[in-house]
Amino acid sequence: MFARSVVSFNFKHSFVIEFCCWLLQVLSNVTVINFLPYHLETDIDDCASHPCKNNGTCTDRVNGFNCSCAPGFNGMQCEKDIDECAAQVDPCDAVANSECKNTAGSYNCQCKNGFVKNGLNCEVDVCHWQNYQNLTDAKRKYDYVTVNSKCDNTLSGWYRFQGDAGTKMVTTCPPMDRCDATFPVWLCGGHPTVAEGTVRRKGCIHQSGDCCREYVFTQVKNCSSYYIYELFPPWSCPARYCSTD
Fold first, then answer.
1. Which of 31, 46, 149, 240 is the most exposed place for a label (fewest CB within 10 A)?
2. Is the pTM of this model over 0.90?
């Protein structure tokens, strides 16, 4: 009985040894793959630095961003202004006697020489022959409180109020220390109609509480969509012609 147990043990031991040898041989022919652990990373908000220019809208992406550009701009960061005037079809073709001027993100249809804007159209400038000059200083407005008094002692000829200065002379008496002068000058008598042509008016100088203590005569002409004025240096300084919208 002891002999049989020895034989059985030897047989099992031999089988285990053979199986292990076979397994080692199989494993020696297998490529071992190393699996690296995953690394969790935080995505940075690429829109936090506001990379989209000219009011473009930023959308954050993984490791990047996209810009949706406002009308009139393009480029990766909306940095390029689109020249609408260079388009195959001129956007100002519909406005007769005008030419296209590109602006940042848009364009303007500006009237050609000898024409003036009236609403959306460019009409013949009936006062173009007058060779008037433009007064555009915003400080000429009747409600601008004077900081450093100026004087219109160099004006001589025909002028038009335009741009930041407004469109015409004010026709009511402003308080003193307005229009960037000590003595504001206002138009007494109102503006003429087109039919009235060129009229003579007083440019009243407000001094010492008297709205028309002194005055200088001026010519006024209605040019259909705007007015022009023949202005001369006021008698007293610092006095300045005041404007309004």
1. 31
2. no
